[in-house]
Write a structure and sequence with these properties.
This protein has 36 residues and is mainly α. The chain has one domain. Helices cover 78% and strands 0% of the residues. It is built from 2 helices and no strands.
Length: 36
């Protein structure tokens, strides 16, 4: 299931130059989602 928020973050992460930064932010965001 793709929510609007996840779609937004996917587009945002896709525009970042570094895949390492993508992984860091993706992990950070998923950690936030898990806490909610």
């Amino acid at each position: 299931m793709i929510s609007k928020k996840n779609f937004f973050f996917d587009k945002f992460l896709f525009q970042l130059p570094s895949t390492n930064e993508q992984k860091k932010i993706a992990n950070y965001l998923s950690n936030i989602d898990n806490k909610i």
